[in-house]
Amino acid sequence: MKEVNREQIEQAVRLIIEAVGEDPNREGLVDTPKRVAKMYEEVFSGLNEDPKEHFETVFSEEHEELVLVKDIPFYSMCEHHLVPFFGKAHVAYIPKDGRVTGLSKLARAVEVIAKRPQLQERITATVADSIMEKLLPHGAMVMVEAEHMCMTMRGVKKPGASTITTAVRGVFADDPTKRAEIFALIKN
User: Fold this and answer.
1) Fold of 6-44
2) For the whole model, what pTM was predicted?
3) Is 140 within 8 Å of 98 (Cβ atoms)?
4) How far apart are the C-alpha atoms of 86 and 84, rounded to whole Å?
5) What residues have CB less than 8 Å from 175, skipping those under 6 apart?
6) Which residues are within 8 A (CB) of 26 and not within 5 positions of it... i.e. 6 or more apart?
7) Residues classed as catalytic
8) pLDDT tens across 144-179, in order?
9) Which Pfam families is this protein grouped with (predicted)?
């Protein structure tokens, strides 16, 4: 994958500073291009990772009941405005044929996917699809709740508005009672 070009980001940030009518050589702004380039390298580090790699390690455990990790915090950047959105992801799956993964791997997959220019809907679907592809479970369900700064600090200006997206696969898509169970557990 392509590495982040810090020098190019620094040049672009200098241009933005000038374009808004500021002096990029002013004391408080002189190092801003470097700081922004370093920040972008960090917040977009998921571009150089495949979230499915976190599901390469599986453990054999005869457990074919629900596994749910909820309230996984994440931070991402809206690809439409390049401003942050942030919230919590809830990730559930029902293992099949003894294929379970470490609980931290579910959180790591969320983090990798979120660290890209992103849409909330894509985070939700990509986590669910990655689990289905690599763990081959009976089903997977992902729910993401987030606040989008593009709605808070600009445009409609509605701070506190929360967006919820879901992705249901396998038995969760087929059985509304299983979906309801997950929603109830997430709420509590």
Assistant:
1) GTP Cyclohydrolase I; Chain A, domain 1 (1.10.286)
2) 0.93
3) no
4) 7
5) none
6) none
7) 78-81, 120, 148, 150
8) 999 999 999 988 889 899 999 999 999 999 999 999
9) GTP_cyclohydroI
**Per-residue tokens: 37:** 């380039």
The Cα 4–Cα 185 span in angstroms is 40
Residue 115: what residue type?
K
Q: Do domains 6-44 and 52-187 have the same CATH topology?
A: no
Show me where the domains of the chain are located. Answer: 6-44, 52-187
Residue range 52-187 forms a domain whose CATH class is alpha beta
User: Is 78 annotated for ligand binding?
Assistant: yes
Q: For residue 116, give the DSSP letter.
A: S
Q: What pLDDT sits at residue 3?
A: 86
pLDDT in tens, 90-145: 999 999 999 999 999 999 999 999 999 999 999 999 999 999 999 999 999 999 99
- Cα(102)–Cα(100) distance, integer angstroms: 7
Q: Six-digit token pair at 106?
A: 């579910």
HSE, CB side, 13 Å, CA atoms: give it for residue 78.
15
Residues making up the chain, counted from first to last: 188
Is 150 annotated as a binding-site member? yes
Six-digit token pair at 86?
């942030």
Note the pLDDT of residue 1. Answer: 59
* Measured distance CA(22)–CA(2) in Å, rounded: 31
